[in-house]
């Protein structure tokens, strides 16, 4: 997070980091999103702690900025999470993990529910 803050300050970029939780108070899942100059870059979901989510979103954002990539394309996971919240279904997928691998042009997603594939 510090490295991204320094990068944005050095380059005159406005950084905003937002975090949100879903699920029960004793076991929330966190999502975070970094916006640079009004454009969404790093977005992550399903982290156990707010700080972890913010750090991962910052890492993704910094990677994208340093690689010269543009803002993130439409992310479907946040849309899915919004749908779950709106329909009070967050408990259905309370224990889930998503991992992204591969390149941005050929992403590979792995979803784990209740610790299983």
From TrEMBL:
Keyword Signal assigned: no
Residues covered by the DRBM domain: 1-67
Cited PROSITE patterns: DS_RBD
GO molecular function per UniProt: RNA binding
InterPro entries tied to this protein: dsRBD_dom (IPR014720)
Keywords, sorted A to Z: RNA-binding
SUPFAM superfamilies: dsRNA-binding domain-like
The protein's name: DRBM domain-containing protein
Species assigned in the record: Schizopora paradoxa
């Amino acid at each position: 997070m510090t490295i991204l803050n320094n990068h944005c300050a050095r380059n005159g970029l406005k950084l905003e980091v937002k975090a949100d939780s879903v699920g029960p108070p004793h076991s929330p899942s966190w999502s975070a999103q970094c916006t640079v100059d009004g454009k969404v870059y790093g977005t992550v979901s399903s982290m156990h702690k707010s700080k972890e989510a913010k750090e991962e979103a910052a890492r993704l954002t910094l990677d994208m900025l340093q690689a010269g990539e543009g803002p993130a394309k439409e992310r479907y996971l946040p849309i899915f999470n919004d749908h779950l919240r709106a329909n009070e279904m967050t408990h259905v997928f309370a224990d889930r993990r998503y991992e992204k691998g591969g390149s941005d042009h050929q992403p590979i997603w792995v979803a784990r529910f209740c610790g299983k594939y």
